[in-house]
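The instructor's notes for this session suggest beginning with a concrete chain rather than abstract definitions. Hand out the sequence below and ask the class to guess, before any prediction is shown, which regions might be ordered.
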Amino acid sequence: MTIKPDRWIRRMAEEQGMIEPFVPRLVQEGVLSYGLSSYGYDLRLADEWRTPPSPGAALVLDPKDISVSHFTQVRGTSYDLVPGCYVLGRSVEYLRIPPDVLALCTGKSSYARCGVMVNATPFEPGWEGYVTLCLANLGQQTVRLLSGEGVAQVLFFLSDEPCEMTYADRKGRYQAQQGVTPARVLGKD
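After discussion, reveal the predicted structure:
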């Protein structure tokens, strides 16, 4: 399995719609960078978030039984994330992962230096959708999250042989997700 460079990412985005919208260069001037980098693609944060119940709420979040109604939807050009809390966000970009590729998403150093951890799971072969990101403030100061600017980097790994069954083949629970998507269990929603 090898990591793929900028020219491969560009070709896959332009010819196969792997990333839409696609920014063919790294935009850095006056913003948290986004777009095509040497060995990855920096995703932008959309202007839509879902906030979990307040810490004082008498509710246990069970990953097998989370209703969208447990979360409050918020929209805006920024979101102030207080210490010790998290918010779910999504990417501006819609991804279509090829059947012989595994993509990994990692946080950007600008947010990490402010105490914000960005968590997203691997994007399996055949998965597509907007990326739901968990942004957690591990620091002691409120951190402003900026929509339309870079939040995470995706790395693409091409396998030397295709998998037997893709995420699309098994009709994965997050296939073609459109917005910020809390945890789901198949058959429950």
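Then share the key points. The helical segments are 6-16, 109-112. DSSP finds two helices and 13 strands in the chain.
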